[in-house]
Specification:
Structural class: mainly alpha
Shape: elongated
Number of strands: 0
Order of helices and strands: HHHHHH
Number of helices: 6
Radius of gyration: 26 Å
Length: about 180
């Protein structure tokens, strides 16, 4: 896990051009490397670097597509009211990502000592951000769930009051209230 790749070190404008060319199926990876090198005025990327970057981008895009499909399927199956559970699933996935990042620490032990320190600092920074984001997402989900439960409880009380005013029997009111609160 060394330093940045030649693609990651590119000027943002050149990287943008590279990504645009990668999205065109009619352009070969060699042609992309040649175009970027010509624009830079020197050889800054190789065909294999373009290939590795293209593979990484495809994998990233595929993971995002799968995550979107999973989220959509979940919401279709369980409905919008179960969105909090989806948040918990996402939190679990974030924990797995942080775990994977921590496993990469082992790869650093085999690397060049001069590359280890910046790579280790970068990895620790990513793990720290991941943990912070994970904790914030968990807090947001817990707060959302708490507010939702409060709103449901208020709604159940309002329904009970309205039913009592309408002359509904106390047993029926209790049954309705329990149903709203999800109590069997």
């Amino acid at each position: 896990m060394g330093g940045k790749s030649s693609i990651d070190r590119l000027d943002p404008e050149l990287r943008s051009t590279l990504i645009e060319l990668l999205n065109d199926p009619n352009v070969t990876q060699q042609a992309i490397a040649d175009t970027i090198n010509d624009a830079a005025g020197e050889k800054v990327v190789s065909k294999s670097a373009v290939n590795r970057y293209a593979l990484k981008m495809r994998q990233f895009t595929e993971r995002n597509r799968q995550a979107r499909e999973l989220a959509d399927a979940y919401l279709d199956k369980y409905g919008e009211e179960k969105q909090n559970q989806l948040g918990k699933v996402i939190n679990h996935q974030l924990r797995l990502v942080v775990f994977d990042l921590m496993l990469n620490l082992q790869e650093l032990q085999d690397g060049d000592p001069e590359e280890r320190i910046p790579a280790l600092a970068n990895l620790i920074n990513k793990v720290a951000r991941g943990v912070r984001d994970l904790e914030q997402a968990a807090h947001t989900n817990a707060e959302r769930e708490r507010k939702l439960k409060q709103e449901v409880a208020v709604a159940a009380e309002d329904v009970a009051k309205t039913a009592k005013t309408a002359g509904v029997k106390p047993e029926t009111i209790l049954l309705i209230k329990n149903r709203i609160l999800g109590i069997s």
